[in-house]
From TrEMBL:
Pfam families: HTH_5. One of its GO terms (molecular function) is lead ion binding. It comes from Cellulomonas fimi (strain ATCC 484 / DSM 20113 / JCM 1341 / CCUG 24087 / LMG 16345 / NBRC 15513 / NCIMB 8980 / NCTC 7547 / NRS-133). One of its GO terms (biological process) is response to lead ion. This is Regulatory protein ArsR.
Length: 110
């Protein structure tokens, strides 16, 4: 069994912090589908651009997303390719723990 370190605990705490806010969780779920510009994410999630900027800054600070300059604009993507399947696995776990979480019309899973 691998030794659990403070680094492991800190990484899980960062993920927990990121997921503790519904807007940040929705941003991560959107970015698992495809990279996006902040303005497009704000429009898709129905939040202001300032809110989106703050949430993306938090997710960058947590090490979960990265910004990619594109001329005068910047788009965002998940920082690690393992994150998208991990989010899928978390969603599946949540559905097992609380099967009433989502109805037949649910769009939270792929």
């Amino acid at each position: 069994m691998e030794t659990v370190t403070l680094t492991h605990a800190a990484a899980l705490a960062r993920l927990g912090h990121a997921l503790s806010d519904q807007t940040r969780a929705r941003v991560l779920l959107a970015l698992r589908e495809a990279p996006a510009y902040p303005s497009d994410l704000a429009d898709a999630l129905g939040v202001s651009r300032q809110v989106m900027s703050n949430q993306l800054a938090c997710l960058r600070g947590c090490g979960l997303v990265e910004s990619v300059p594109d001329g005068r604009r910047t788009w965002y993507r998940l920082a690690d390719p393992h994150l998208a399947p991990a989010l899928d696995d978390l969603l599946q776990l949540l559905l097992v723990v609380d099967p009433t979480c989502c109805g037949p019309a649910c769009t939270c899973t792929r």
